[in-house]
Amino acid sequence: MMRRTSRADLRPLFDELLDNLDGEDRYDLFARALEALVAMAKLKTATLDMKITSNVLTEMAGAFAIFKPYADMPKVTFFGSSRTQPNDALYTQATLLASRMSELGWMTVTGAGPGIMQAAMEGAGQDKSLGVNIRLPHEQGANPFIAHDPKLVEMRYFFIRKLMLVKESDAYVVLPGGFGTLDECFELFTLLQTGKMPPAPLILLDVPGDPYWPKWDGLVRDLLVPRGLVSPEDVVLYHLSTDIDEAVAEILHFYSNYHSMRFVGDMLVIRTMKPVEDTALDNLNTRFADITSDGSIRRTGPYSPEKAESDHLDLHRIALRFNKASFSRLRVLIDALNGTR
Length: 341
What we know:
By secondary structure, the protein is an alpha/beta fold. The chain folds into 3 domains: 7-68; 72-254, 3-Layer(aba) Sandwich (Rossmann fold), CATH 3.40.50; 258-337, no CATH class. It is built from 12 helices and 11 strands. It has helices at 7-18, 27-42, 47-67, 89-103, 116-124, 158-167, 179-194, 212-224, 244-254, 278-287, 304-308, 327-337; strands at 75-79, 107-110, 129-134, 152-155, 171-174, 202-205, 239-241, 258-264, 267-272, 292-299, 316-322. It has a 7-stranded parallel β-sheet with strand order 4-3-2-1-5-6-7, sandwiched between helices. The termini are far apart.
């Protein structure tokens, strides 16, 4: 019979377990995870639910381990149809863009299947490819460019696969596809719109003359926006392109000055490669007063939590009390920092 333990009783057990781990600064995070598992056991959580929890944690741990050695390398995730054939112009388009990004030092991440996923990995090359494959009974396994590669992780759950495809990348490219591709595309749009992922370039890539993305864009602009179902400024969150050079330029320009951002308390800190001069700062305050909940946009040095974590201390910073609602406008602010819009 399991001995009942209180939260206080668990702490010595966790101390003993975690003392030898190289994670003292994250002790509370590890402890909370362990406490949650113990709580599930004490509640006599159903066996199926415990199996799901165990599988989820195992798959996430495996994925984190595979991606960790490449944490400092920029990555672009490709989405698109698994049914696209090698003789299709879209296949060639994905191959060319992945190849160009690889030459520029970027890694390519895909769902590791056939079609567009295979095309992108073919273009990137095996050394610059990371795969997150989903196990499906009616489809073949990983494509030959990533199969049996140590940079491939296999998963049973779509939601964990989506997490890794999004979490680890700095840019996203979506080519025409079916239900799965549209699901991934709309989820990217939703995550960007709601701020559940950091701002990032999202390229909807096509070939000249194909109406796929123009009609999708028409749905958004002509049906959703007029009904007030999305905001007019939300269309800045994605970029339609049929040109490889343009797509590359859009991705690189996003990071030409903007580097990253994080919240420190109620302050949004935006890190940039170059300092924001007085005139530019005045312009930002005039244009984006609507997204500040209090005070103004100002230059700042690293905050204490950033110093404690040595979080890009060499970069320049501006800070604002962001209203945490206008993420499309925040994207426009980033574009302004980069010298566009």
